[in-house]
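Problem 12. The chain below contains 209 residues. Write out its predicted structure in token notation.
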Amino acid sequence: MMSDAQTAYALAIVFDIAPATRLLTQTECPSWLYPVTMGATTIWERWDSTLPDGSINPGQMTSFNHYALGAIADWLHRTVAGLAPAEPGYRTLLIQPRPLPGFTHARAEHRTPYGTAAVGWRRDGDTVTVTATVPPNTRARVVLPDEQAYATLLRVLGEQSADAAEEVRAHTTWVPGRTLRERLDHAAGPDATDRLAEAFAELSAGRGH
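Solution.
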């Protein structure tokens, strides 16, 4: 890393240079868990506001209750757990969990004007079970992940063209609003589309539905 600034880490994550989840799960500095190991109950302004020996970082920016790194909380809530507003005021919920590799479960809840909304998921082998609580007089739009289907997609494309598989993977991961159909039409061809249909049919048959 050129520096320990947020921008440097964000670029490394967005361009898939470094695993995102490493910063979240490791306990050595830099990470979000390092402050926890040092007794933190708030988000610090810098990774090492307290040094490993317990002394206070002598730098000029050493707040112990600061939002500089606190966006992680919103990301955990909206993305990992998958609870977000689809309309202002949570009149419609967006339930879209993202079970990250290495995570076995996650859960988030929010007190909306209509009552408590909650989303949770738990991984058991190849199965991910999602539960949700939708308050009265609200609606929810649910988008569930299908890791097996996505893995099948990349495998089939990779059999025909490694470049096409990488292009689809990169754009469907990082470009908001870009549909899978648009990427397939651009990166693959009708032969790949037909083979994908066969592979998805085989996957469904193996699941018994």
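Discussion. DSSP finds eight helices and six strands in the chain. Students who got a different answer should revisit the alignment rule from Section 12.3.
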